[in-house]
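Question thread 4412

I'm putting together a teaching handout and wanted feedback from people who do this every day. The idea is simple: show students a protein as raw sequence, then show them the structure tokens that encode its fold, then repeat with a second protein so they can compare. Below is the first pair exactly as I plan to print it.
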Amino acid sequence: MDAAFTAEQEEIRRTLRELLLKRCGPDEVKAAVRTQAGWDGALWRQLAQQLGLPGLALPAAYGGVGCGPTELVLACEETGRVLLPSPLLAGAVLAAPLIADLGTPAQRNALLPGIAGGGLTAALAVPGAALASALGLVNSDTSSGSWAGGGRAGGIQARRTSDGWRLYGQADQVLDGHSAGLLLVAAHAGGYARSRTLLFLVREGAAGLARTRQTALDETRPQARLELRDVSAELLGADEDEGSGAVAAALTRLGATAGAALAAEAVGAADGAFARTVEYVGAREQFGRPIGSFQAVKHRLADLYVQIQAARSAAYYAAWAAGEPDGGPAVAGLALAQALEALRAVAGEAVQLHGGIGFTWEHEAHLYFKRAASDELLFGPVHGLRARAAERAGLFDEGKVAV
């Protein structure tokens, strides 16, 4: 493993950081989340047209840049640093890789260029709060599709008709589900007897589809409730008989890259909150001297710095492991757990060290605190991530002793 980044990778990071620092300050973030889409459309078009951000990890044959997980991780670290509200996570990180992995050639040619160009936004819809389970980050039983309803009532059900597939059910907490032009819906087919989980494509404006933007703890991650009442859908891929096995394998592969990207995003957010805190304690004076000169404050900041650097190393390693066979999912889960813990610690200390102003809605410290709490609810819990990684490594196998 070569731990050094290439000149191209460093340029991606530098260019994106410079643009976001100019266009995505705290005031711009607060204004963007209150728009109907929940993000700045003009900034998203600039990121797509000038930097190719949504197609960074997509093949050049489909209009993408043709980079890999490492470049995507570096980009997510920079978007996390400023808490950028955008369709990057829902579309480029979660939905597009599944279309590239499972879609037919016609589906790939029809959909991926639009996603890579930023004109088509996409979202992955799974029932309830089961996203981390669907990606295999916290659940050991992904192949059965129990997270998608298990063939019983609940979740989203699919039935085959003479003119195609119809979906009915409900999904909550769908990232960018209220505004995405394309929905990638995980649904249960075959009833209890032939239980299997399949992925379906649902277009914006489909008859019977109701989308409601939810009030979310973290406004920078818009979420929606989807209600599907006999909605016409297109099967992703050509072979429905592959069923849960192919879908589960694709979701597990996605979990490796998505986990690394989410870890890097959390590291970027932690680093952003840390930098703001260091700047503040260097300027805020008490007893005639900056509070950052007090030994107790120095010790707290030093502990946070160590946590951030450890989480960053884990995220970078997870990006490398995502391209390796069998090692990616376990590493991604551990990296994500480390990053979520670091973000929670930094965000909490940022509020405390900013003093009275850190508790106000006007200050940006609460944005980082909400991101930390929301991410652990959406993609954790941390102990679940670590338990699943340990299970993958065989630490709980009978007869094995961990040393």
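The second pair follows. I'd like the answer to focus on this one:
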Amino acid sequence: MTVATTAEARTVGEGTARERTRALPEIEDASQVTPGDARQLTRLFLERLAVLEEGTREHQYARDTLIKMNVSLVQFAARRFRSRGRDEREDIVQVGTIGLIKAIDRFDLSRETEFTSFALPYIVGEIKRFFRDTSWAVHVPRRLQEARVELARATEELRSRLGRPPTVKELSQLMSLSEAEVDEARLAANGYDAASLDATLHADVDGESALADFIGLDDHALELVVDFQALAPLIAELDDRARLIVHLRFVEELTQAQIGERLGISQMHVSRLLARTLGTLRDGMLSTR
């Protein structure tokens, strides 16, 4: 790291004569600034950022340097989520950096608050929002997402205290929730992770078995759903007798002879009416495709 003194520093960008008297030091690699130096330099850069005009090169330099100097705050906050995978940890740092940028843009020097104390809640909040919005395999209400976290903590606490998995009643007492609410939180927790249908379950002599091999079969009846939806309005357009014949034949499954007896007509007449009605429905179905 190279930090030039005020006398040696080269002015970055354009500024007024008053601004030039407090020119920012040029830092070659702001990410290498030690935390101790970063605290001191952050205050200086924030003071200058407050008076610089947005869009100027010096304003951009001050803002970018503040971000790079304080990325260690993001890394510190990300350690709380170290149980995540490597790929997800990279996402955590990126999301946390968004929180850092928001803190830089919103910091108020007049409050005389340490920037670190101000920025950490923004960083952690952004990371938690990321998990809340993207980590769940299925969407569940926020109250259940929060209940899942509380449930995990309560379960771990009671397991350590009791030396065994806690019961629903014990969890409800510790969490100050009803047993039904605890069951709901436990059920919702199942929606946090999802397994791929191609996930390998175990190896056998014939090779590897996938989860999809053990859960259900293709339901070919589902292909009829679209046909049923198209058929419903066509049946509604039939006259009362034609609809009744269709109902008796295909819902009550009566024979043509039984239908004729029910309606007081011959079986041959029933056959002609049924054939004509089915032809009408068939033509209507074909015209909708």
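Top answer:
Good format. For the second protein you could add a caption like this: Residues 86-106 form the longest helix (21 residues). Confidence is low (pLDDT under 50) at residues 1-21.
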